Fold this sequence. Notes:
Number of domains: 2
Strand order of the largest sheet: 1-2-5-4-3
Number of helices: 6
Amino acid sequence: MRKEKGNPVDETPPEGKKHRSRIIDAVVGDFESDIDEIDEVFDVGESDGGEEGDSPPKARRVLVTIAVFMIFFSVIGVITSARFVSGVMNDIADRKALKNEFALFVYPVVINDPPAYDTVDNLPTTTIITCAIWKIILVGDTSNYERDLGSMRVPAVDVELSARSIFGTGSIRHENAGNFEVQFLYYEEENAYIVPENPLFLSYSPVISEITNVDELYTVTVEYMAPSPLAIAGIDYENRSIKTMIYTISRTKDKMSINSIKFAGTIGI
Length: 269
């Protein structure tokens, strides 16, 4: 009989053809080379009398399909777990960074231990001035200030700007401020304050224990930690907060301001 020329006809039954998605191929690779080994392990070889070219047994196809899906979902599980752990670690790092940001911001205020207040209008002017000048001492750029005998002249306008950056207001009546340990003297003729360059003043330091917020309004729990000679000597000891204050702070992308401070409680030493 004469054979017709042309492309060979695929006689493989439809159920014998492989239908695998590109995703599964990428995850598990090509299983064709392992089919014989699977047959030997599970004893599902070709039926007696089968001819070469017959489609794989149904049991073998089911086994391969199950293996593919098991590996596929295992990979999905690993990816999901990795993303979850990464998200938790990033959240912890973000909260720590936020606590550090608030601790640095409230430090000039905590070091002066101001009274509790509901609005800045109820806060003494001398307290606002003192906190503003301490912020300049701690984190401000003082390189351009005039210096004389361990003191520097801080322009009143810089004090106003510093006060505004803490409390949201810079409208203050300039006067002498500070306390008997560190004094800030105001000279009206120069419109400037005489401020010690490196004042030695041991007071509270802040530790942020809790932060909650509703939009841009943050409620910050601040622990007031007292200095100790043991800390100065480098000796490990259990340091406990002297008192706890609740700060309400407005925080935007551009600025922060302390709206109020209220008393939370004390802990005995």
